[in-house]
Design brief:
The complex is a heterodimer of chains A (385) and B (256). Chain A is mostly helical and 385 residues long. Chain A has helices spanning 6-9, 29-54, 61-66, 75-86, 88-111, 118-146, 149-156, 168-199, 204-219, 222-236, 243-268, 272-280, 285-315, 331-342, 346-381. Chain A is 74% helix and 0% strand. Chain A is flat. By secondary structure, chain B is an alpha/beta fold. In chain B, 36% of the residues lie in helices and 23% in strands. Chain B is built from nine helices and ten strands. In chain B, the strands form two sheets. In chain B, strands 6-7-8-3-9-10 form a six-stranded mixed β-sheet, with helices on both faces. A four-stranded antiparallel β-sheet of chain B has the order 2-1-4-5, covered by helices on one side. In chain B, helix 3 (110-120) crosses helix 4, helix 4 (126-139) packs across helix 5 (155-167) and helix 5 packs parallel to helix 6. The longest helix of chain B is centred in the C-terminal third of the chain and has 16 residues, at 185-200. The chains are: A mainly alpha (385), B alpha/beta (256). At the A-B interface, helix 12, helix 13 and helix 15 of A face helix 2, strand 6, helix 3 and helix 5 of B.
């Protein structure tokens, strides 16, 4: 057998061509352009508005021509908003933002493939995205201020009309909103757990009424349930309850239907072996549920239940169809009362801010809990699987 | 029955601890068990081997009625437990079961996994339950892991806790359903050692397993389940040395 030389077995080939394009010389310039554009439009808006609001000014001639009479409550504030929006500084900033944003987009999307590190590429793309956002925002503001921003500001951003209602009755309204949502959610959890246990039953007779209840409350509008159940109790059963109490009951009944589905999914997500292990130790079905299944399911359904709670907080606004007395006003009823007293819709803006003040921290909390539960459960249940 | 008993069934005048007669099980149209007879005296170890899908696990699960046989009866301690009036929760306290996937309760410590049934089913007080659980954890060599959660234990340790959990009920019969199949190879030994010790202490056991060495050395009796029937039965050593049916010969050639 002849010796085979290395060259014969591995013929020397030409090196493959370098397919990498040239590196871009501009590196992360697009990122700075994008940041500059977004700062110009957002920072500019805030600064110019603050400057007009805080400096010593009077209602201008132009504002009076627009119908903002000097004796009107809050006309100076509204005038300042409009004047700031239409000021030459704002014009310069908006057009600057559009120019900078367009430059960021062109540069970013034109050069990101030629960046020599992943980090630079991410920065460049981010710059282009920020530029796009700045351009859109600036265009929207340009269109808005060429419309009738004075009318909008007069009716929705005239915070001076809140004067006598803020913070006193506003805070009561926030409190009542939270009471409605909290009692509704707690009652709903109890109802939902019972319904969930019934709905996973093997027996049709136990399952059917629970399923009918859930479908009914999920299938009809909450606003209809509020009105109808109020009068059902009042006329049908001759039970005279405060509208606020009826609202809490209806929210609990309604949330119960949704919570039941959440619990059912949670219980069914527990591995079948858990039930079998509990039963093989002599536990009854109910004992197995109580000690082995439900405690695990409850942990898994905390995030979706908290989401239901956030939804319920907003849905409390629907009690507007019931006749609440002034001390029971929740945020939306409070706002409607304010609007009909003053003919100014800024109360709705204030209500929206009130809802956000409650829901934003809750949404953050849900996300944090979800993250923690996911990692926590993986370390506990994951190794058992 | 298709199988010819080589070693005779236990003598009929003495009531065995467990006796299964004419067990059939359908899952829908799927006829999984097609007439199984099995009996076990106290202190004996019944090993069940066979190809996957042959009905081994279903047979075991029909023993404590996690699956109810479609046809046939199971007699345990002289009582027909397939009778609808039987209190199965009571029967199951005397019949421990260990699963392939351990099935420990992940939200409880090892100790609590054991004491929960002692307290809620056997109605022992907390102190008594703790003592009995610690004794069983010592038995499987895990007393120092009493406060660990299942997620903090290795697969082998989890399975030993699961065995301790079943043993703490002081059962008359233990059922093992492929308890080493989900374990990493290096963890199989510690679990088999516990089971071997248990057999030596005289526990009556039914063991579905793929561990042929264990089957041969620990088994009192062995059945080869294939196609829903007991295709061959006898003493493990004789069956390994001299399989009578072609099917068993083929099975051995694949697994040995």
């Amino acid at each position: 057998m002849a010796e085979v030389s290395l060259e014969e077995r591995m013929p020397v080939r030409e090196a493959p061509p370098d397919t990498r394009g040239p590196s871009s010389p501009v590196s992360a310039t697009a990122l700075w352009l994008g940041i500059a554009a977004i700062v110009a439009v957002l920072g500019g808006l805030v600064l110019v508005q603050a400057n007009y609001a805080l400096s010593d000014r009077v209602v201008t001639r132009a504002c009076v021509d627009l119908g903002l009479r000097r004796d009107l409550t809050g006309s100076l504030g509204v005038c300042n908003i409009v004047e700031a929006l239409r000021s030459s500084q704002m014009t310069v900033l908006l057009y600057a933002a559009i120019a900078l944003g367009a430059a960021a987009m062109a540069l970013g999307w034109g050069t990101y493939k030629r960046m020599d590190t992943r980090r630079r590429r991410e920065q460049t793309v981010t710059g282009a995205i920020l530029g796009l956002q700045a351009v859109i925002l600036a265009l929207v503001l340009l269109i808005f201020r060429d419309g009738r921003p004075d009318l909008f500001a007069k009716h929705f951003l005239n915070f001076e009309v809140l004067g006598p209602y803020f913070p006193g009755t506003f805070l009561d309204a926030v409190k009542n909103t939270m009471i409605l949502a909290f009692v509704g959610e707690l009652g709903g959890i109890v109802i939902g757990l019972v319904l969930a246990i019934l709905v996973i039953s093997q027996r049709r007779a136990a399952r059917a009424p629970a399923r009918a209840y859930i479908n009914f409350f999920r299938g009809t509008p909450l606003i209809w349930q509020l009105a109808t159940i109020y009068f059902l109790l009042l006329f049908g059963f001759e039970i005279k309850l405060a509208a606020f109490t009826v609202a809490m009951i209806v929210f609990a009944l309604n949330t119960g239907a949704y919570a039941a589905e959440v619990f059912r999914a949670g219980i069914q997500s527990i591995e079948r072996g858990q039930l079998e292990a509990a039963r093989s130790l002599g536990m009854s079905w109910f004992q197995a549920m109580r000690y082995a299944i439900v405690p695990q399911a409850v942990r898994r359904v905390i995030p979706p239940l908290m989401n239901e709670f956030v939804i319920l907080i907003k849905d409390t606004a629907l009690v507007i169809v019931l006749g609440l007395v002034a001390s029971e006003y929740e945020l939306f009823t409070w706002a409607r009362q304010g609007v009909s007293d003053t003919f100014n819709a800024t109360f709705f803006t204030a209500a929206a801010l009130g809802y956000l003040a409650v829901t934003l921290p809750l949404i953050r909390l849900v996300n944090a809990v979800e993250k923690r539960l996911r990692s926590g459960l993986v370390s506990i249940a994951g190794a058992a699987a | 029955m298709t199988a010819t008993p080589r070693a005779a069934m236990p003598p009929p005048e003495k009531e065995p601890l467990i006796r299964m007669e004419g067990i059939h099980k359908w899952f829908g149209d799927n006829h999984v068990l097609r007439g199984i007879d099995l009996a076990l005296e106290p202190g004996e170890v019944q090993v069940i081997i066979g190809p996957s899908g042959g009905g081994k696990s279903t047979l075991l699960r029909c023993t404590n009625l996690l699956e109810r046989p479609t046809l046939g009866s199971v007699w345990f301690e002289g009582q027909d437990i397939t009778d609808i009036r039987t209190d199965l929760n009571d029967v199951r306290t005397r019949m421990g079961m260990v699963f392939q996937q351990f099935n420990l309760f992940p939200h409880m410590t090892a100790l609590r996994n054991i004491t929960i049934a002692l307290e809620k089913v056997l109605k022992l007080d907390r102190k008594e339950a703790d003592e009995r659980a610690m004794e069983q954890l010592r038995h499987v060599g895990l007393e120092q892991k009493a406060d660990a959660y299942p997620g903090q234990l290795s697969g082998g340790q989890q399975q030993r806790v699961a065995i301790a959990r079943a043993l703490a009920m002081q059962p008359r019969l233990m059922l093992f359903d492929e308890v080493t199949s989900a374990l990493d190879p290096e963890l199989v030994g510690e679990v088999l050692a516990v089971m071997r010790q248990l057999a030596e202490e005289g526990m009556t056991m039914m063991v579905v397993t793929h561990e042929m060495g264990f089957a041969r050395e620990v088994g009192t009796w062995m059945v080869f389940v294939d196609g829903g029937v007991i295709a061959e039965r006898g003493r493990p050593r004789e069956m390994f040395a001299n399989p009578e049916t072609e099917r068993l010969r083929q099975f051995f050639s694949k697994v040995l």
